[in-house]
Amino acid sequence: MAADGTNGSTEEYLYHIKRTITDFAEDKSGATRITDILGTFTFLAAAKAAARGALASEGYIADDFEILELKDETNAEEWKHGDGCLVYAKAPRGQEFDVRIDTKPNVLNLKGNADGEVEGHLHYVLQTIIDYNNDRIGGLQNTEVEGTYLTRKEAYAAAYTVLLDEEVTKESFAEYDEKEEFEGEWPYGDEVLVRAVSQTGENFYVAVKAQPHSHKEHACSHHEGKKCECPCTKSDEGCKSKACKHEGCEANKTVQ
Fold it and tell me: 20: closest CA among 125, 93, 102, 111?
């Protein structure tokens, strides 16, 4: 098993760059959050480097934040954001950004390139758990990667099995809803496919999200230190990001 990031290496674990935005500007409770996986790597050193530059890879610059702190540039006794957080930022309107590494087994034996990054347009099955018994407003919640797939079809199929196994069935839950079988308007958002409530009150949300697209492969007139505003024309392929690197997408063409 290669451990030096050689081309085509397959490693035991995947290291996912997880960025969460908590929107205190719109919801003071902290319950409104957006979590994305910005990239996946097959060795830890490359993942840590990517995590440090994660916000820049999305087009943000230091001036976009009133606070921007990196764990490896801060004295341990002064770091207030927990051991798992590698980057913390706060925007002027109150949104808080948190970048972490989510380590998971490399079940599908995905390979990294020479830099250790798993290439391709990845799709992630994400599970969010909210325990309203301990926090009635939902501010205490956690989102983790449950699976990484090369196609949306595979990710969708996996999402419907995340909460179930030979011993745990749909009937094991106090409530269990699937988007494809729900009658009426689905109230949990486009990306959530399963919502369940355990007998003890824990709420589970299983979603499929595509990997956002990086500015490093996107040339446009907005790229000089600002977030790209080019619309993506590949929404039918799961791309909902303004920074698109889909081949053939108008947003991926250099603006003259």
Answer: 102
CA end-to-end span of the chain: 46
Of 155, 100, 188, which is closest to residue 196 (Cα–Cα)? 188
Give which of 153, 154, 195, 200 is closest to 175, Cα–Cα. Answer: 195
Provide the pLDDT for residue 137. 65
Note the helical H segments in the chain.
Answer: 44-52, 54-57, 152-159
* 3-class state of residue 156 by DSSP: helix
More confident of the two residues 3 and 134: 134
How many other β-carbons are positioned within 10 Å of the β-carbon of residue 126?
A: 25
Q: Please name the residues in contact with 178: beta carbons below 8 A apart, sequence gap of 6 or more.
A: 160, 193, 194
Would you say the C-alpha torsion 5, 10, 11, 16 has a positive or negative sign?
positive
Angstrom distance (rounded) from CA 44 to CA 201: 36
* pTM for this model (two decimals): 0.79
Residue 141 belongs to what H/E stretch?
strand 141-149
Q: What share of the chain is helix, strand, coil (3-state, %, to 5)?
A: 20, 30, 50
pLDDT above 80 (res 6): no
To 5 degrees, how large is the angle CA 190–CA 196–CA 198?
Answer: 160
pLDDT band at 212 (very low <50, low <70, confident <90, very high): confident
The residue whose two tokens read 């319950």 is: 31
